Amino acid sequence: MRDQLKMPSTLLTNETQKQDMSQALALTIAQAADDRKGDNIVILRVAEISYLADYFVIVTGFSRVQVRAISQWIEHQVETQWQRLPLRTEGQADSSWILQDYGEVIVHILLPQEREFYNLEAFWGHAEQIEFHAQEPQP
Length: 139
Hints:
The chain is an alpha+beta fold. It contains five helices and six strands.
């Protein structure tokens, strides 16, 4: 019994690893958005305030074509680096707001008008904002 008490909690370790992986996925997504010139990229940690996801990544694209291109590049990069596809993608037909659901990370790619109107950052304002620093774009 004493040996069991000295062992670290696997539940805590697994939860920490899950959070680290979720954040790494969010950063991969943010970098992919930046590669396609997505603007005002915001990563919100919503795990403590929502059961929907651990992170939201919010991105602005300046045309419907750019919003689609950002979405496609994110999907490509996540599939290449993580061997994952989104569980669900919504809004591709209109392309004014594309939502990609990766389970623990939800991506919102919006035109400026939609981003201003829906103001997701204010709605989720009590979420922790994660710093994102863009790296050199991938070819």
